[in-house]
Write a structure and sequence with these properties.
This protein is of the alpha/beta class and 414 residues long. It has 2 domains: 280 residues, TIM Barrel (Alpha-Beta Barrel); 119 residues, no CATH class. The protein has 17 helices and 10 strands. The chain has an 8-stranded parallel β-barrel with strand order 1-2-3-4-7-8-9-10, surrounded by 5 helices. A hairpin with an 8-residue loop joins strand 5 and strand 6. Helix 7 packs parallel to helix 8. The protein is globular.
């Protein structure tokens, strides 16, 4: 199974927007660009919403059939570990191996020594095509990299081979997630992480490294975009070089776990993948759930009242909701409207505050982040929420499609 050059991960919390999401990807195809769609949903999201992995496969197949889609599509077991991977084996064909808990923990000293010995030949000045200055590699640097990342890659190997035993080597796509660390990986670190991946026999087709800056949920990138551009391009070059050095899959590409809507760095990503003829996998995740709320707000009446209720409950339960996402949100509670004030908003006002249009003076990134993590409230409403999604599926679907196509696909790929 080979992942296409360009692919987009589309989370769908409640499993109702598959056709609307696929419609955006189909528009890209009609514009001459092939993009594979990857429906992703994590164990945490399934746990909060009380769904099961099979439901994502069912939604994907239903959407593909309804739109007569002939392009690539996959179902991603997002951020899985050995403790929960078995739940996804039947329904998924894309596995994002999350080994963040093992990053920074040391492998056995003899394994670090063996890794250092194996790759000692790279010490000195290492020229990577596309990077202006050669990388300086020392034995100490290799040892330090192994000390920080080798155990994590070995854990990824355990998860991969467990999946392989069940599904067969050719029947799924593997992504390695290295993004949930405190410090961005250097080009040297990424090079030897890829060496370790090859060493474990993992045919990774995408890798998600840590980049500089903040990738908060649902809002734009916070950081030095020029520095990001340099890091991203160097990573593209390191991957191309490592593919040849370590006999990794030739379609191995960067995966950007964006948390959605990192619009200010999209031009840099676009420029780099075009300049180097590189692939890209980007995960947009919870942006679809927010478009559901925007559509319901625009629908007015009881749908708008429900959105206001979700907001008020999210604010009341702030600490509970924010806890699992504390490292990927920056919410100033003083910038959040009081529920009694928000209750007086029109549908247009609420939609404007929530929609990610930074040119709109009503846009409120703090409200947007809070509601991004507030899907648990909607889940607890059960049919009350789902029935309104169905009742207003046209306006909700229009927002989902337009957001994915115009704000994400077009600036990145078209």
């Amino acid at each position: 199974m080979k992942l296409e050059k360009y692919s987009i991960g589309t989370g769908d919390r409640f499993g109702k927007q598959g056709k609307a999401q696929l419609e955006a990807v189909k528009r890209a195809q009609e514009s001459g660009t092939e993009i594979a769609i990857v429906w992703n949903k994590s164990y945490r999201e399934h746990s909060i919403i009380h769904t099961d992995p099979v439901s994502v496969r069912e939604e994907a197949e239903s959407s593909v059939k309804a739109l007569n889609w002939k392009g690539g599509y996959y179902v991603d077991a997002d951020h899985i570990s050995l403790t929960n991977v078995d739940l996804f084996l039947e329904s998924s064909d894309f596995f994002t191996l999350d080994v963040a808990d093992f990053t920074g923990k040391k492998a056995a000293e003899k394994e670090i020594n063996a890794f250092t010995d194996k790759y000692r030949s790279y010490t000195g000045k290492l020229s990577v095509p596309g990077i202006s200055e050669p990388l300086t590699i020392t034995e100490e640097k290799i040892r330090n990299i192994a000390g920080r990342y080798l155990l994590a890659v070995q854990e990824a190997g355990k998860i991969y081979h467990h999946i392989e035993k069940s599904r067969g080597r050719e029947n799924f796509i593997t992504e390695i997630s290295m993004d949930e660390t405190e410090i961005p990986q250097t080009p040297e670190e990424l090079f030897f992480i890829l060496a370790a991946i090859a060493n474990e026999g993992i045919p990774a087709q995408t890798i998600a490294p840590k980049f500089t800056g903040r990738f908060n949920k649902g809002v734009d990138y916070v950081g030095d975009s020029d520095r990001f551009a340099k890091e991203f391009e160097e990573d593209v070059c390191v991957i191309a070089f490592a593919v040849k050095e370590f006999n990794l899959p030739p379609n191995l590409k960067l995966s950007v776990h964006s948390g959605s809507d990192k619009f200010s760095i999209y031009p840099h990503i676009r420029k780099s993948i075009r300049q180097h003829d590189a692939g890209l996998h980007i995960k947009t995740a919870g942006t679809t759930w927010l478009e559901e709320l925007i559509g319901l707000a625009e629908a007015g009446a009881e749908a708008l009242d429900l959105v206001k209720e979700i907001y008020a409950s999210s604010l009341e339960r702030f600490e509970e909701l924010a806890g699992p996402y504390s490292n990927v949100i920056d919410i100033d509670r003083n910038q959040l409207p009081l529920p009694e004030d928000a209750s007086k908003w029109t549908g247009e006002q609420f939609a404007s505050a929530l929609r990610h249009d930074q040119s709109n003076p009503l846009y409120n990134r703090h409200l947007r982040q809070l509601l991004h993590i507030g899907y648990k409230i909607a889940s607890e409403m059960g049919d009350k929420y789902l029935n309104l999604l169905e009742k207003h599926r046209d306006i909700v679907g229009r927002n989902v499609t337009e957001n994915l196509f115009s704000r994400h696909i077009t600036p990145l790929f078209l």
